[in-house]
Design a protein that fits this description.
This protein has 10 helices and 13 strands. The protein is α/β, with parallel strands linked by helices. It has a 5-stranded mixed sheet with strand order 3-2-1-4-8. Strands 11-10-9-12-13 form a 5-stranded mixed sheet, with helices on both faces. α6 crosses α7. The two termini are 13 Å apart. The model has no long low-confidence stretch (mean pLDDT 94). It binds zinc ion. The site of zinc ion has 5 residues, from loops. Zinc ion binds next to loops.
């Protein structure tokens, strides 16, 4: 029995076949066009190329409820019923939730009864997996980035302000990096912040420390509520070695409410595909 796992991200579509043992093969990756309709066409083509699979799992960068993408700032899509779009049953889940399921079963969290995954990308995503099962609640459990940490803080795309991701996510690091000076070469703010820290600029060092403290504050609150055995940190800004990854991992190891393991994610870019396939074949 083989499952097709698909990861529909903000910029790329990734797909692969996953067998019962969680082994991944035939991975393909393609850049997505900016047009939302063309993105759905690319997804349809990938799924249509695999009529033989027993199930299809889809991870998407957005909020999902009952197989419908209700909102996605990254994809420019909303109200998409994927089963109707693809003409076949499909299990749909948020991409951070998929990554959490995969890391808990096959990656850094293997063997831990309760795993909290937090992804540090543009925003902060999350997943809670207990006994190998994803906590879903009414659908959106794991939206950790919207934990409000600072009343009256920076406005968030969710409509609230002072959300955790606005203080410690990539958007916050980008803002800080951009404030260091004009971007002559178009380097993203977070990368400029990292470069300034490596160069020893005191303002940049202090700013990154502040973001890392904000990151630890939110993580500590989550650990107080969830009491995970293992915390896994993933996402693009943790995958890339450098001062941001180092500062966030170090800060995450100084929590009051979690003395267990804090580990970087292991599955890299395959986590979404693997998690989507696992979700489509619960066992
Ligand atoms: Zn928010």
């Amino acid at each position: 029995m083989t499952t097709l796992g698909v990861d529909l991200g903000a910029t790329h579509l990734r797909a692969g076949l996953v067998d019962r043992a969680g082994r991944l093969s035939g991975v393909t990756r393609q850049a997505l066009p900016p047009d939302p309709t063309a993105r759905l066409d690319a997804l349809r083509s990938v799924v249509a190329a695999h009529p033989e699979v027993s199930a299809v799992g889809l991870a998407v960068a957005g909020t999902v409820r009952d197989g419908v993408l209700t909102w996605s700032a990254n994809l420019g899509l909303s109200g998409v019923d994927f089963a109707a779009e693809l003409g076949r049953p499909v299990t749909v889940l948020n991409d951070a939730r998929a990554a959490g399921l995969a890391e808990a079963r096959l990656g850094a969290g293997t063997g831990a009864a309760t795993v909290l995954l937090v992804t540090v990308g543009t925003g902060l995503g999350g997943a809670v997996v207990t006994g190998g099962r994803l906590l879903e609640g009414a659908g959106h459990a794991g939206e950790v980035g919207h934990l409000v940490l600072e009343a009256g803080g920076p406005p968030c795309r969710c409509g609230n302000s002072g959300c955790w991701e606005q203080l410690a996510g990539g958007v916050a690091l980008n803002r800080t990096g951009a404030a260091l000076g004009p971007a002559g070469d178009g380097t993203p703010g977070a990368a400029r912040l990292a470069a300034a820290v490596v160069a020893g600029q005191p303002r940049a060092v202090a700013a990154l420390e502040q973001h890392a403290r904000q990151f630890a504050r939110g993580l500590d609150s989550l650990c107080a509520v969830l009491a995970p055995h293992t915390v896994v940190l993933g996402g693009g800004l943790i995958a890339r070695s450098g001062p941001i990854r180092d500062a966030y991992l170090a800060a995450a190891r100084t929590l009051r409410w979690h003395t267990g393991a804090v580990l970087p994610a292991q599955l890299g870019d395959d986590a979404g595909v693997l998690g989507a396939a696992l979700a489509a074949n619960p066992c």
